[in-house]
């Protein structure tokens, strides 16, 4: 096993205060590694970075078309959203459309990350509900597929037809069996895989148009939905949203809990998977930006880039006290 | 330089998902290292873990007695508090008492960590102010000393008499010159030091009764204030507060930003300083708890201990999905 490499450094004044190490793989459409940092075969939990894979059965089963879902619904199915009104209004309408309600969810209630929505709830004396869960789009996709299949209500059970369909799709696009699964923050199963396998899956999405069959067609639709609606995949101010916009739709991006990040690059037919070993999101955001700059896809001087890979650390009086930047020698 | 060692592991199901590495030193009252992990001579920024040192000039100058400060004020001067009412009411009263106001602060406004206070502000349509800054106790101490010295209003300037007094005290108790300073989150200078030097300073506080002079007397008073008012040093639910309570006042604890932690152990005349290299608070809390258990000071089965070093990771539906625990082989 190869040790993780330094990916991001946190400087305060002239002092290196903190360091983030990680593993990353760039994979081509044949499944071969183009470049790697650290250990490409390390077993990882891709968490929410696997949402576009978990959405494949929704599309390839015909459920998405049977329920006349739009591209924005597919983007929400792949989202870890802020629970701003643009997200929750669409999730509520989608639930209504399929004849399901908030109490059919199994994701749990979560305080909105969107400050306007959070404060509106507090002022109204209301508790956050499951629609505010950052995964509520994925779960509405699960509910849609559940109804389409006529399956039971406990759609997050590992043995449920929805999750078994997700597992089959996951192992197929990763090109390897999953060594096991865990329970994610939203109670859905999350499947383990090698980092290489996850990058291979992202290369599958990147090269979907070269492949045949309903799965490849579904992968292309989901990837296009993500870049068409970057604000639905995460939200204003977030890395996925801002960096996808900065690249003008050329690359699909998705973060995951515990510092996971993926990139799907159709024009090069490449997939990227990245894990910062300490679970720090700021480290993963800096590292994925550095890789995208190295690949010539992201402008190093774009404000969205500078916010992640040369990010000033401002204190409570907005004084610049330090910077987050790629580690020396990484990318 | 010795590499940092694995200190804490984050497991999800059967998979090791994230790891935190760090450096730590236990130092005795002669300044010698009793035990160390990683590199004891690494230069660190102790951040808020140095607040009891930054409060020394307030006491040793005579300002604390001139203004008849109580033990609870000294605890607040060492605090990174939640901005609950127990903290903000006392800071406001202390400001009134010294004839100063919120606009004399230089710490900046910060949203309260205390949810009740945060929500009350939002419902009232009020913005957080500088009194809600987690460092407002330290800054009231700075203002008290500033007034006592008849010094100028910009008390966070490195050249200000208050900060120069802090630096002199810092280098004295650390037993080594500081290689430089940075600007902290609250805009005060924060002095760099070796991890060994910081542990030596904590051993100074632990053995203050064996020493003579106003500085040693001030150190003993501040240490006693911290353990007498654990709820003022941090707040309900926080590691410093809960672990100090769990040890019944035998040990003073203080966290700092970017995963710093210290312990002051009077009965053994020991000081502990710890830095998790990735800046993750959960890692530092797990590691300091593990060291305190190893030293026989903290009950491994106390709920406050279990919350840090065998902490269940519960998801949005309160399902146990994983655990944070000390790394194999650490302590």
Structural description of this entry:
2 copies of one chain form a homodimer. Chain A has 331 residues and is α+β, with helices and mostly antiparallel strands. Chain A has a single domain (5-326), classed as Beta-lactamase. The first copy, chain A, has helices at residues 51-54, 56-60, 63-66, 71-77, 85-97, 115-123, 136-149, 161-174, 195-206, 214-228, 230-233, 239-246, 281-294, 303-309; strands at 5-12, 15-27, 33-37, 43-44, 181-183, 189-191, 193-194, 252-256, 260-265, 270-276, 311-314, 320-326. Chains A, B: InterPro entries: Asparaginase_II, Beta-lactam/transpept-like. Chains A, B: Pfam families: Asparaginase_II.
Query: What is the alpha-carbon Rg of chain A in Å?
Result: 19 Å
User: End-to-end span of chain A in angstroms?
Assistant: 21 Å
CATH class category name of chain A: Alpha Beta
Percent of residues in beta strands of chain A: 15-25%
Task: State the major sheet of chain A.
Answer: 8 strands, antiparallel
Would you tell me the structural class of the helices and strands of chain A? alpha+beta
Write the element-wise H/E pattern of chain A from the N-terminal end onward.
EEEEHHHHHHHHEEEHHHHEEEHHEE
Helix content of chain A: 25-40%
Q: How many beta-strand elements of chain A?
A: 12
* CATH topology grouping of chain A: Beta-lactamase
CATH architecture annotation name of chain A: 3-Layer(aba) Sandwich
Q: pLDDT average of chain A, as an integer?
A: 97
